[in-house]
Amino acid sequence: MSHHSSTARRHGKSIIIVLxxxxxxxxxxxxxHFLLSRRQSVPAASVTERDDPDVLLYNGGRYVKNDAIETVxxxxxxxxxxxxxxxxxxxxxxxxxxxxxxxxxxxxxxxTPVHINRDTMCTxxxxxxxxxxxxxxxxxxxxxxxxxxxxxxxxxxQVRAVSELLYDTPIDHYxxxxxxxxxxINNLVGGVTVTVLDDLSALDSALVQGETVTLQxxxxxxxxxxxxxxxxPTNLNRMKRQQQYLTALQQKFTQELAxxxxxxxxxxxxxxxDMVSDFTVNALSSFxxxxxxxxxxxxxxxxxxxxxxxxxxxxxxxxxxxxxQMVVDIFYLPLDAE
Length: 338
Known about the structure:
Blueprint: H1 3-22, E1 56-58, E2 61-65, E3 69-77, E4 96-105, E5 110-116, E6 121-127, E7 133-140, H2 152-165, E8 173-177, H3 181-188, E9 192-195, E10 212-215, H4 219-225, H5 235-259, H6 263-271, E11 275-277, H7 281-291, E12 295-296, E13 300-301, E14 304-308, E15 314-318, H8 320-331, E16 332-334
Parallel strand pairs: 3-8, 5-12, 5-13
Antiparallel strand pairs: 1-2, 2-16, 3-4, 4-5, 6-7, 8-11, 9-10, 14-15
Helix pairs in contact: 1-5, 3-6, 4-5
């Protein structure tokens, strides 16, 4: 294998591992506000009647699903490893406070990350003690993982909520991890440098707004997790810090990988005990290999409005038309394109 091919393969692996790391950026320990209603499934004004069940007629155009797409949902849980276990009655208490959907398009060689606001209100299903669907609730999307054992059944429940939010878009794979790994990964790359976006000095004296700081250990967790007590405590504001940190982490990882060919393996080994995934070792290896030459597009977000409920729980309501447009843009192909 040529040096160029080897370097490209290592760079592709670094991107995938960093993206797997980004879902470690868990947020605050907020409890979901439960309501008893369901979201509208499709913006009625946007979609017209279909002549062919495989063709979507939308805003005057005709579209078909892109069969070259593979999706992976990455979940960062709001618990430390020491806080897991002891699940009773189908509830584990672990919310998926960081949600990132990777959309890989084999036909174009691109990967589109979709960052989903953990406060997004949508249909979430309760699970009984046997992992079976029990009852639907309208709740923050992050609470879907809180039902079940905290293992694969909880991950599948989170996948179900995200899939339905995106108008029943299939999700092929998933991976979750607890927040223990944030400091581990941050230290393995030698720290991550950011210009502090919010005044976090009450939590860490070094995190003064506007200062350039190389985050060390759990200081990185503080930076990407904090929001209560800030001038802007919304999750949208926190997501800006998470995305800033992800970009800086990717850059630092790539630099360190040039000096340490074994860095990817070291990180995977270090966080493997905190991870739950439907990937086997061989499947993960194949996934990494497939993504080696992919181009990563800018992170997409769901447009919408953050509000507070009557009990002051944070909620985010997606703009249905904008969300449906994003789903069409990412997961469908136009039939009428020249």
